[in-house]
C-alpha cells in the first residue's frame, strides 16, 4: 500500500510522499484556474468544479476564492452554496448534502494528526471523513473538525467550532459548539 492509498483509507501516511505531493501540485494548479473565475457565473464555473471534484450536482455555487487539498475527495449535491474563502482539507471524503448553505470563511477539516508525539514528529498524519447533511446552514467562520457528521436541517452558528456530531434539526453554536434550545 503506497502513501496515497494509506491516506485515502484514513490510515497514518506521510504527506511528503511523491504521489501525494504530485496530487497537491495538480490541485494547486486547478485552484489557480478556479480562483481566477470571479467574473464568471456559477453555471459557467460548474464544468471546472466537475473537473476536480468526485461529484458535483446541479445549481452548485462555490464562490472564489476557494481552497482545498485535493478536490477529488469532495462530493457536492444539488443546490449547494458555498460563500467566499471556504477551506476544505479533503485528505479523505467530504460530502455536502443538497440545499446546504455555507457562509464565508468556513473551514471543513478532515486532516488530523497523531496524539502520540513520536509519529507526529515523523510527519505522519491521517484523515477522518466529514459528512454534512441536506439543507444545513453553516454560519460564517465556523470550523468543522475531522470526523464530524452534521445531520439534515441542522444550523451551525457563525464562528462555532464543531467538535462532535450534530443531530438532524439541531442548532449548535459556540466553542465548542453545543446544542441550543
Summarize the structure.
This protein is 23% helix and 28% strand. With 181 residues, it is of the alpha/beta class. The protein starts with a helix and ends with a strand.
Describe it for me?
The chain is of the alpha/beta class and about 180 residues long. It has one domain (about 5-180): Hexapeptide repeat proteins (UDP N-Acetylglucosamine Acyltransferase, domain 1, 3 Solenoid). The protein has four helices and 20 strands. It has helices at about 5-10, 20-35, 40-50, 115-120; strands at about 15, 55, 60, 65-70, 75, 80, 85-90, 95, 100, 105-110, 110, 125, 130, 135-140, 145, 150, 155, 160, 170-175, 180. Strands 3-6-9-14-17-19-20 form a seven-stranded mixed beta sheet. A hairpin with a 4-residue loop joins strand 19 and strand 20. The protein is globular and about 40 Å long. The termini are far apart. The model has no long low-confidence stretch (mean pLDDT about 95).
